[in-house]
From TrEMBL:
Molecular function per GO: DNA binding
GO terms, biological process: DNA integration; DNA transposition
Record protein name field: IS630 family transposase
InterPro entries for this protein: Homeodomain-like_sf, Transposase_Tc1-like
Organism of provenance: Rhizophagus clarus
Signal peptide: none
Residue stretches making up the Transposase Tc1-like domain: 56-125
Amino acid sequence: MLEKGYSTKEIAAKVGCKSHTTIIRLKKKYEETGKVQNKPCPGRPRKLNERDECNIVRSIMTRECSNAVQIQKSLKVNDDIEVSASTVRRALKRNGLAARVKRKKPLLSKKYCEKRLNFVKRYKDWTVSDWNKVV
């Protein structure tokens, strides 16, 4: 369209772009590279794709595996994917999970609850000045 003499504003209106500067930017990119597509992203390609990460999260949530090393071993055996445990930890972190399962706290014993209740009943009428004398 630019070759036919249309202005960038006219092209933007016909194509449906909100801004004519988009057309200018694309024209400049085409003149420099001969293409309009973006350059490929730099860096190493990922070892784990989104589906692999979902499988990792699922194995933690279903308690199939309890830590990153177990997940690493299961990936190697089941999916033939060799990754380090730190890669698994990063994948878990990206998906909002810590890389470890927190241990459950023991329940409070009846004896402790009774002692705590007796303490509260004994000192419920104390004022702030009484507590200041303790320390």
